C-alpha cells in the first residue's frame, strides 16, 4: 500500500515575471485534477492522463492548445504514457489536429500492439478511435505566433528552409508538460506531452514521446517525467538514467540531481525532472523535482497537502481545500 | 595501437533454413566492408554506416531494399546512428522512398540540431540534402509482398483498418540490421536500420531509431545495436540496459545475456544484441552477442579474424583474407 501522490510540471525554462503566477495556477489546477482522480478511481494512469490533459487544455503551456510552431508555422505534437505495472506504453509524435495528444497516446497503448505512432499514421489511428481531428489553427495561440515571428526575424543564417542552424532555437519554449503518480496500490505511471520547440524542422521529434528519455515508469523503481532541451535529454536517456540511479539505491532527490549533472557534463544542455520513487525497502515512496534551467513550474499533492514552486530552492505549500 | 573491431547483425528471428546461407553471407560481407574502412583509418561512424548500408542494399534483410510492408502495403523505414565520442545522434522514422536510411540518419546528425525526424519531415529533409525520393516499387521484394499478402489473407480478426488485433503480427519480419564498431582511435559508434514488422500500423515506430532502445554508444561505456521484438525492446530500453550492465563490469557477452534475461522476465518478447565494451584502460574492447530468438545472423572482425554464426552457440572462425 502507498500514499497516493502526484507531481506535475509545466516546463523547465526561463519564465517571464508576468507569466509566473498564471503558470503556477496552471500546474496547481492540473495537480488537483489528477489527484482527485487518484483518490477517486485509485488509478495512477488515470491521474497522470487527467493532469496532463488539463495542461494541454491550458493555453499557457506548450502542449495541445498553446503548442509552439514548427518551421512551417504548423503545430506538431508528441506525447507518451507509461504504465509502471507492466511497462506498457503508448506514444505519438508529429500528431496534428488533436487537442489532447496524451489521450491518443493512451489509446495507442490500450488499443494497439505498438508503442509509438507517428504523423499521418497517428492521425489516422486517432480518427479510427472516433476522435475527429480539429483544424490545427485552433491550437495556435498569439503567444506561439509571436515566438515564431521573433525566431524568423533573428534567424539571419537561415536562407532556405532546411539549412543547418548555427543559431540555437529560441529557448523560451521548452515547456513540455508532464505528470507522474503513485496510487494506493503502489502502481506508478508517467505521462509527458509537448508541442516541441519553436521553428523545429518539420517532423522533428524530441524526447517527450520516447521511453527512457521523456518518461519512464516501472513499479519496481519509480516514475519520471522530463522537460528541457530535448536533444540533450535523448542523448543521455535522461529518464532511464534516473531510474537506473534509483535502482542503485539513490533517493529520488539524489537521482534527479546526479542525472542532470551527468547530462550537463556529458552533452551540455539544461532540463528539469519530476520523480516518484517506488516504496521499495523503505516502504515509503518519495517525491522529488530538480532543474538546471532558470525555472521549472511544478506542483505536488500528497496526504491532503499541496506544494508548488517555480524558482530554484523555493516552495510554497498549503493544505488541500475540499 | 588500438585494434579496430566491428560486429554486425542481420536480424534476430526465426530465420528459415532457406535463408540462412544468404543471411550469413550478407553479414560477413557487411562486416568486411565496415572493417575495410576501419583498416584504412576511417572512423567508427564511417564503418557502421558503410556496414549497415551494405545490409540495406542486400534484399535478404528487412532494411532499405527488402524492407517489409506496413498494413497499407507501403514501405516505412527507421534508422539511427550514434557517435560514442560525444553521444551525437541522428535518426529517421517513417521515412519513405529511400534506399539507405542510415545515411539520412547520419545527415540528420551532421546537418541539423535535431536527433530524430519523422514522416514527411524526414523525407523532405532527405530531398533537401540532394537525395531524390525513389518509388516504393524499387524497394519492395517479392518476399516482402508475399509476406504481406499472407498476413492480410489470414488476419481474420481485422475488419476495419485499425481495429484492435488479437492475431499477432507475422513475426518473420524482425530482421532489423545493425553494426557497432571501434576505430583505431578507440572511438565507438552504433547504427541500426529497419523496415519494421510486416503489416505494422502505418506510422508505427519500433525500437530501431530510438536512442537507448535500438542502439546506444558511449566511448566511456561501449556500443550496442539491438534487433527483435521492437515493443519489448523499447519498454526496457534494451540498448541502454546493456550499456548499464557493461558499466557495472559485465563483459559484452554477459551484458547482452543479462539484459535479454531481464527483458524476457519483465515484459516478455525475444531479441538479439551485439555489443562492444571498452576495457578498463579503454585501449581495447570485448566483442559480444547474444539472442533469445531461434536465430540471429551476425559477423565480427578483429585481430585479423572473421567470426560469424546464426544458430545459438554457433561461432565459425577463419583468418581474414588479405
TrEMBL record, chain A:
The active site is at residue 176. Keywords: Autocatalytic cleavage, Hydrolase, Protease. GO terms for biological process: L-asparagine catabolic process via L-aspartate; proteolysis. Substrate binds at residues 204-207, 227-230. Transmembrane segments: none annotated. It catalyses: Cleavage of a beta-linked Asp residue from the N-terminus of a polypeptide; L-asparagine + H2O = L-aspartate + NH4(+). The record marks 175-176 as: Cleavage. The keyword Cytoplasm does not apply. GO terms for cellular component: cytoplasm. It holds the Pfam family Asparaginase_2. GO terms for molecular function: asparaginase activity; beta-aspartyl-peptidase activity. CDD domains: ASRGL1_like. The keyword Repressor does not apply. Belongs to the Ntn-hydrolase family. This is Isoaspartyl peptidase/l-asparaginase. It comes from Plakobranchus ocellatus.
TrEMBL record, chain B:
One of its GO terms (molecular function) is beta-aspartyl-peptidase activity. It comes from the Eukaryota. Keywords: Autocatalytic cleavage, Hydrolase, Protease. Pfam families: Asparaginase_2. GO terms for cellular component: cytoplasm. The keyword Secreted does not apply. The record marks 175-176 as: Cleavage. GO terms for biological process: L-asparagine catabolic process via L-aspartate; proteolysis. The active site is at residue 176. SUPFAM superfamilies: N-terminal nucleophile aminohydrolases (Ntn hydrolases). Coiled coil: none annotated. PANTHER family: ASPARAGINASE (EUROFUNG), L-ASPARAGINASE. This is Isoaspartyl peptidase/l-asparaginase. The lineage of its organism: Eukaryota, Metazoa, Spiralia, Lophotrochozoa, Mollusca.
Amino acid at each position: 500500500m502507498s500514499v497516493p501522490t502526484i507531481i506535475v510540471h509545466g516546463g523547465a525554462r526561463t519564465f517571464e515575471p508576468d507569466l509566473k503566477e498564471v503558470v503556477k495556477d496552471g500546474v496547481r489546477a492540473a495537480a488537483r485534477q489528477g489527484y482527485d482522480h487518484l483518490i477517486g478511481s485509485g488509478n495512477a494512469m488515470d491521474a497522470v492522463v487527467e493532469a496532463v490533459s488539463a495542461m494541454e487544455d491550458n493555453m499557457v503551456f506548450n502542449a495541445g492548445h498553446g503548442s509552439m510552431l514548427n518551421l512551417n508555422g504548423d503545430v506538431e505534437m508528441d506525447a507518451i504514457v507509461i504504465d509502471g505495472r507492466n511497462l506498457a506504453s503508448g506514444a505519438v509524435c508529429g500528431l496534428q489536429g488533436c487537442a489532447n495528444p496524451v489521450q491518443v497516446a493512451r489509446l495507442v497503448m490500450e488499443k494497439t500492439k505498438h508503442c509509438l505512432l507517428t504523423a499521418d499514421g497517428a492521425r489516422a489511428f486517432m480518427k479510427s478511435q472516433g476522435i475527429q481531428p480539429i483544424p490545427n489553427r485552433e491550437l495556435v495561440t498569439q503567444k506561439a505566433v509571436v515566438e515564431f515571428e521573433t525566431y524568423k526575424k533573428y534567424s539571419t543564417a537561415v536562407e532556405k528552409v532546411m539549412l543547418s542552424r548555427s543559431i540555437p532555437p529560441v529557448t523560451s519554449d521548452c515547456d513540455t508538460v508532464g505528470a507522474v503518480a503513485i496510487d494506493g496500490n503502489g502502481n506508478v505511471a508517467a505521462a509527458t506531452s509537448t508541442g516541441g520547440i519553436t521553428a523545429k524542422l518539420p517532423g522533428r521529434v524530441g524526447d517527450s514521446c520516447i521511453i527512457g528519455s521523456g518518461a519512464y515508469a516501472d513499479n519496481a523503481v519509480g516514475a519520471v517525467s522530463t522537460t528541457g532541451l530535448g536533444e540533450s535529454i535523448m542523448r543521455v536517456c535522461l529518464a532511464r538514467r534516473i531510474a537506473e540511479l534509483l535502482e542503485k539505491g539513490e533517493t529520488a532527490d539524489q537521482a534527479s540531481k546526479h542525472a542532470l549533472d551527468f547530462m550537463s557534463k556529458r552533452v551540455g544542455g539544461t532540463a528539469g525532472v519530476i520523480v516518484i520513487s517506488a516504496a521499495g525497502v523503505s516502504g515509503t515512496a518519495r517525491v522529488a523535482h530538480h532543474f538546471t534551467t532558470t525555472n521549472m513550474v511544478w506542483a505536488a499533492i500528497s496526504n491532503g497537502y499541496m506544494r508548488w514552486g517555480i524558482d530554484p530552492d523555493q516552495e510554497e505549500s498549503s493544505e488541500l481545500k475540499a | 595501437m588500438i585494434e579496430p573491431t566491428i560486429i554486425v547483425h542481420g536480424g534476430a528471428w526465426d530465420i528459415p533454413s532457406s535463408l540462412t546461407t544468404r543471411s550469413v553471407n550478407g553479414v560477413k560481407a557487411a562486416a568486411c566492408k565496415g572493417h575495410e574502412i576501419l583498416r584504412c583509418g576511417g572512423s567508427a561512424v564511417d564503418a557502421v554506416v558503410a556496414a549497415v548500408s551494405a545490409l540495406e542494399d542486400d534484399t535478404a534483410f528487412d532494411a532499405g531494399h527488402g524492407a517489409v510492408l506496413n498494413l497499407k502495403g507501403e514501405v516505412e523505414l527507421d534508422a539511427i546512428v550514434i557517435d560514442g565520442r560525444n553521444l551525437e545522434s541522428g535518426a529517421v522514422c517513417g521515412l519513405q522512398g529511400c534506399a539507405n536510411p542510415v545515411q539520412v540518419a547520419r545527415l540528420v546528425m551532421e546537418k541539423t540540431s535535431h536527433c530524430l525526424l519523422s514522416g514527411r519531415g524526414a523525407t523532405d529533409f532527405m530531398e533537401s540534402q540532394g537525395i531524390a525520393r525513389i518509388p516504393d516499387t524499387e524497394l519492395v521484394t517479392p518476399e516482402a509482398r508475399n509476406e504481406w499478402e499472407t498476413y492480410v489473407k489470414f488476419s481474420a480478426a481485422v475488419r476495419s483498418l485499425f481495429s484492435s488485433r488479437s492475431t499477432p503480427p507475422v513475426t518473420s519480419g524482425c530482421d532489423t540490421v545493425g553494426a557497432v564498431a571501434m576505430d583505431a582511435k578507440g572511438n565507438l559508434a552504433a547504427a541500426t536500420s529497419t523496415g519494421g514488422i510486416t503489416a505494422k500500423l502505418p506510422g508505427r515506430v519500433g525500437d530501431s531509431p530510438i536512442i537507448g532502445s535500438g542502439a546506444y554508444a558511449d566511448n566511456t561505456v561501449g556500443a550496442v545495436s539491438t534487433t527483435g521484438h521492437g515493443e519489448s525492446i523499447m519498454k526496457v530500453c534494451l540498448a541502454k540496459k546493456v550499456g548499464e550492465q557493461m558499466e557495472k563490469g559485465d563483459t559484452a557477452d554477459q551484458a547482452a545475456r543479462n539484459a535479454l534475461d531481464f527483458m524476457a522476465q519483465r515484459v516478455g518478447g525475444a531479441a538479439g544484441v551485439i555489443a562492444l565494451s571498452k576495457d578498463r584502460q579503454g585501449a581495447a574492447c570485448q566483442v559480444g552477442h547474444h539472442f533469445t530468438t531461434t536465430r540471429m545472423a551476425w559477423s565480427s572482425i578483429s585481430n585479423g579474424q572473421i567470426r560469424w554464426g546464426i544458430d545459438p552457440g554457433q561461432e565459425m572462425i577463419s583468418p581474414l583474407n588479405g
